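Standup notes, protein team

Yesterday: finished cleaning the Phytoactinopolyspora alkaliphila set.
Today: Amidohydrolase family protein structure.
Blockers: none.

Input for Amidohydrolase family protein:
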Amino acid sequence: MSATPCPERILLDNARLPGATDLTSLILADGMVHSLGEAGGTQALPSQRLDLDGRTVLPGFWDAHVHVESWAISRRRLDLHGTKSAREAADLAAEAAAAMSDPDEILIGYGYRDGLWPDLPHKDLYRGVAADRVIALQSNDLHTAWLSPTALRRIGAPDHPTGVLREIDCYRAMAALQEYSVDQVDAWIAEALDDAAAHGVTGLMDFEFGDCLPSWQRRVRRQRLPVRVSCTVYKEHLDVAIERGMKTGDIAPDTDGMVEAGPLKLFVDGSLNSRSALCHDAYPGASASSDAHGLLETPPDELRRLMGKASEHGIHSAVHAIGDLAAEMAIDAFEELACDGRIEHAQLLPPHGVARLAKLGLTVGVQPAHLLGDRDVADRHWAGRTHRAFAYADMVTAGIQVELGSDAPVTPLDPWLGIRAAVLRAQGADDEPWHPEQRMGIADTLTAACRGRSGLHPGTRADLVVLEHDPIRADLTQLADPGVVGTMVAGNWTYRTF
């Protein structure tokens, strides 16, 4: 489906807006919300009339943090979620490798969390057939890759002592091992985007490593997109992005209005599960090594230089900061440069971090589903500080624009998983919440899941989702299954079952 504005005048009748008791009607024209009125209205004789029969309509969801290519590929990988030890993960990989008919095929696994494992990943754990196959298992946070001896030889690192590669070494290894054709990857992405539309998603921010805008321009030429895309750029490609002359938010040419230039992605630190998130306090049990507090990926001077260079050309910065020291460095840089942008993750904020973020007017991109898997790891490695972890309620109360994302493939691209985690601070309504004082209200959470859109208003895009249940009025257990029955972009249906 295309984002070319639908020229027809569409009446969505007997619709319910979130939290409302009365039904209304929405008139859509030229891909925009034209007006709202009483149910049963017949303004201007619309060319289409659809009776929503009391279903709820709200702005379409934006997933504010996706690694699209990795997500699409991961849907075909060995799933290691739930593994309890390195030995178990290695045995699963060996079993999968033995079942592969082509001995030259690369086995990629993902999703393991070793923060609570009793043993450590190591190349020597690959035994038998697994030792002779090219195997790369990527951690759930994507910051660590655990390679087999044969995979290490493939990337030219046969003497690596452990086979466990972190941060930039991980990214380079995974890029070298993923030998997929452009046609194959684009087909997988098209399939994955259709699934996103079925979850009510109308847009996403793509944080795939590299310079993804040309790839999206190619995809639009091949097939109309069902979601809008904001394209980030990494520092290695900043000069190319500047040469294009496009500012953050500009619509890319020849993309049918579907693709926009996004921010510059910069890393200050790593992740919690890999113990590479940069923190003021050392990790428990860490030796007095240079990385006892986590890893500094971009020193402050270099961070400011890159952010300043981007800002001079109208490009915002999206700064990855998970630990409290990393967040402090990122806030310091934004404060000194007085530039626009966002902080990604902000899982552990320093004291006074919320107030400083609010004063700067920064957007914070968060992934509530992360707390479901990270709460126990945080209790162990951030003990005594978790009242500052995933501090969503504090941020909303301070007036910070919070935007929800999945970080797919780290967690599934399902906005309701993140919405439920933000509202409940737990897996389900009957589970014990983690730091319940940081729960977000459902109305604020929906706004955060819709890229800051708090409702449907005349003059706004007709990007919307139709639900069987009103999430404002429904029982909290229904947040797991709100019943997405329709998704629309620019007045065109990208998913519809009624």
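Follow-up from PR in the comments: The chain has three domains: 1-60+456-498, 70-177, 268-452.
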